[in-house]
């Protein structure tokens, strides 16, 4: 791949805790159903997975939010469940019920029958999407690749879809912990290979989504979720095309384990809105960058309330580098795009003051 210069590197600079002129921002699910142009494309493609499997369409919907909003990163349009799908579990989406698998993994025999997919071969459609998006971005902003954490992928594979109580999964964890470890180990190998393939295809940062780590007790979180994310981080390509490829770990509801997460070897920790940035910064702020954390439901409120909440989040992190602004956990399909604009406007107006002196230093540094 020929290297195009990156025109906007705020996101990568913030992850490296280097000075920036304003706080960079991206949103989880920034491409999706809240955008009419996405709904139009999805109807045309047939299904969500058809969109993911067609690299031109995946590229088009990845870029849609960037046409509307001054975002500082693009995120690959795909899903975390592509790995179990490539393992032969048969992913499908039932309207209104979320993801489902035709086959589940619940016994030691089920686990023994599994193997990690070869990402370049079995998930080549994802790699084609990554390289197409990189080409079309043409250096505008960096591209984020992603995967689910082994624990979060296991929740869907064992339950066969979304779950409220994780009954089958927890039964397996407590009854047959060895089989659970074996499953998580296969998934950790699969995720490492998958993320490295995305990096080779052009992903400039990667995020691991541990959406369901927060459902565990502290010892179980450390043993069954964090340990495998650590294993992945230690196996990732950390420099590509002459640039560091930062890794972000995001455990939803993981605020109580910040000190542990910050020691897992990643460049940044993603926070949801239930963890206060000022507290997080006081606890781990110098170790890693922090990504977070506006409650996405704030975007249902009026513009002045959105602005007040953006101001509060910025003030909570305070001055200085190392902050990536993010919607705590995904934008709702019912959000009005105008309210996203109100959020972006507020951030653009309010965030530069938190970087003034630092940015001056950066310019001094560049001149030296
Ligand atoms: O953030 C982005 O813009 C990138 C794309 C992305 C999607 N899913 C697209 C998507 C990312 C990063 C994900 C991650 C993902 N997928 C997670 C981890 C983050 C999280 O949300 O907790 C999880 C748990 C999944 C599994 C998944 N995929 C669920 C539970 C659903 C159904 C959601 C629903 O509201 O029905 C999906 C489908 C999905 N993935 C959609 C999108 C845009 C909706 C697809 C559609 O109906 O058009």
Automatic annotation (TrEMBL):
<protein>
    <recommendedName>
        <fullName>Uroporphyrinogen decarboxylase</fullName>
        <ecNumber>4.1.1.37</ecNumber>
    </recommendedName>
</protein>
<feature type="site" description="Transition state stabilizer">
    <location>
        <position position="79"/>
    </location>
</feature>
<comment type="similarity">
    <text>Belongs to the uroporphyrinogen decarboxylase family.</text>
</comment>
<feature type="domain" description="Uroporphyrinogen decarboxylase (URO-D)">
    <location>
        <begin position="144"/>
        <end position="160"/>
    </location>
</feature>
<dbReference type="Pfam" id="PF01208">
    <property type="entry name" value="URO-D"/>
</dbReference>
<dbReference type="GO" id="GO:0004853">
    <property type="term" value="F:uroporphyrinogen decarboxylase activity"/>
</dbReference>
<comment type="function">
    <text>Catalyzes the decarboxylation of four acetate groups of uroporphyrinogen-III to yield coproporphyrinogen-III.</text>
</comment>
<feature type="binding site">
    <location>
        <position position="156"/>
    </location>
    <ligand>
        <name>substrate</name>
    </ligand>
</feature>
<feature type="binding site">
    <location>
        <position position="79"/>
    </location>
    <ligand>
        <name>substrate</name>
    </ligand>
</feature>
<dbReference type="InterPro" id="IPR006361">
    <property type="entry name" value="Uroporphyrinogen_deCO2ase_HemE"/>
</dbReference>
<dbReference type="InterPro" id="IPR000257">
    <property type="entry name" value="Uroporphyrinogen_deCOase"/>
</dbReference>
<feature type="binding site">
    <location>
        <position position="211"/>
    </location>
    <ligand>
        <name>substrate</name>
    </ligand>
</feature>
<keyword id="KW-0210">Decarboxylase</keyword>
<keyword id="KW-0627">Porphyrin biosynthesis</keyword>
<comment type="pathway">
    <text>Porphyrin-containing compound metabolism; protoporphyrin-IX biosynthesis; coproporphyrinogen-III from 5-aminolevulinate: step 4/4.</text>
</comment>
<feature type="domain" description="Uroporphyrinogen decarboxylase (URO-D)">
    <location>
        <begin position="24"/>
        <end position="33"/>
    </location>
</feature>
<keyword id="KW-0963">Cytoplasm</keyword>
<feature type="binding site">
    <location>
        <position position="329"/>
    </location>
    <ligand>
        <name>substrate</name>
    </ligand>
</feature>
<keyword id="KW-0456">Lyase</keyword>
<dbReference type="InterPro" id="IPR038071">
    <property type="entry name" value="UROD/MetE-like_sf"/>
</dbReference>
<feature type="binding site">
    <location>
        <begin position="29"/>
        <end position="33"/>
    </location>
    <ligand>
        <name>substrate</name>
    </ligand>
</feature>
<comment type="subunit">
    <text>Homodimer.</text>
</comment>
